[in-house]
Amino acid sequence: MPVHAQGSPFWLIACNAPEVLLHLSMMSLLPVAIVLIAIIFLVSTLSARAEKADKADTTGPPEKPQEPEKVEQPPSRKHTPEPSLSPQSTQVDTGPAPFHFVEGKALPRPTSRSNTPPRRHPCRVCGVPSTKRCLRCKSAYYCSREHSTQDWRAHRPHCLPTLARSRSPPKARPPPADAEERARGLRPGDTVSVAAYFFGVDADAPRRVQVSCTLREPEEDGHMWHAPDFKEHATWPALGYVGVQRASPAPEAPPLGRALSLFFHEFGLLDGQRPNRCVERLVGGPGRTAQSWVGDIILLREERPDRYCDVAEEDLAPAIEYFRDYGRT
Q1: Which of 84, 163, 234, 278 has its CB surrounded by the most CB atoms within 10 Å?
Q2: More confident of the two residues 306 and 91
Q3: 35-56: b (≥16 Cβ within 10 Å) or e
Q4: How many CB atoms are located within 10 Å of the residue 141 CB?
Q5: What is the 3-class SS of the chain, one letter each residue?
């Protein structure tokens, strides 16, 4: 066995062998101890989580604390109630309603009281239903601006501003047009007789005749209307009509203040009817008219639309002007 000098490293190790061995043994077990401590910590963490999960499955979700009941207080005098719809109206759900503010509280705005579409009225020119009306009187309806301009000359005398109408004193309502007939006990289906002018195709002058009119059911105006029967004087397969409301067909002619109606065979030329000699004599001879008047012609006077009364001698002059210039461009 070799002998080492005192103070050499090997001599020091030999002298302190127990302590060196203890330190070496501790140094070799340190990694093992660290691994064991980590395993113990991991196992304890997993077991704690498993215990919490088991408790959650058996006990259920935690109960929420009960809130104290709210006591409704009566509204103050300054509270504005929410506007409501009438029982007859219908409300359509169109999504979230807009809000306005009353005394700091947001209240829904009242919706429209009616969802019915606006009523349509026939155009005064073509009869097409429309909701557009005259901005001045708000009583005449038109389907377009062109028809409003076209009818302005005839509509102008009757176009009164709405404000002027509302400020004017109320007028007494006139009696119904058929009040006299109803007083006589007449009902729909009965007949009345009115005087008319008859322009015969071979006559030299017009003559007055009686035309029977059948009373029909009341319409929008609430009174019976007249359906004339011309079979006693003329037979027309197709009835033609010309309204006379001015002294002549010229647009600048003054209005008559009454309405006249000329009835004739609409397709008389196609049926080969002869020219009306009575009309030719009234206008001054053949070829003096803008269009050909053929067959028999009857003139009636209107008391109201579709209601006729006896003609007068003054009605011949505008009829002759229409015979002469109607259809002239």
Answers
A1: 278
A2: 306
A3: eeeeeeeeeeeeeeeeeeeeee
A4: 21
A5: CCCCCCCCHHHHHHHCHHHHHHHHHHHHHHHHHHHHHHHHHHHHHHHHHHHHHHHHHHHCCCCCCCCCCCCCCCCCCCCCCCCCCCCCCCCCCCCCCCEEEECCEEEECCCCCCCCCCCCEECCCCCCEECCECCCCCCCECCCHHHHHHCHHHHHHHCCCHHHHHHCCCCCCCCCCCHHHHHCCCCCCCEEEEEEEEECCCCCCCEEEEEEEEECCCCCCCCCCEEEECCCCCCCCCEEEEEEEECCCCCCCCEEEEEEEEEEECCCCCCCCCECHHHHHHHCCCCCCCCCCECCEEEEEEEECCEEECCCHHHHHHHHHHHHHCCCC
At 133-157, the pLDDT tens digits run: 888 788 888 898 888 888 888 888 7
Closest CA to 274 of 288, 298, 293: 293
**What tokens were used for 235?**
């037979």
pLDDT digits (tens, 9 = 90+) for 149-185: 888 888 887 787 654 444 555 566 656 667 777 777 8
Determine phi and psi for 318, rounding to 5 degrees: -65, -30
Q: Name the residue with tokens 């029977």.
A: 212
Residue 151 tokens read as: 């009818």
| Closest-CA residue to 244 (of 324, 183, 125) | 324
Considering just the CA atoms, what is the radius of gyration of the chain in Å? 53
* Interior/surface letters 99-121, b for 16+ CB within 10 angstroms, e for the rest: eeeeeeeeeeeeeeeeeeeeeee
Q: Return the HEC string of 304-328.
A: ECCEEECCCHHHHHHHHHHHHHCCC
Among 274, 92, 302, which residue's Cα sits nearest to residue 201?
A: 274
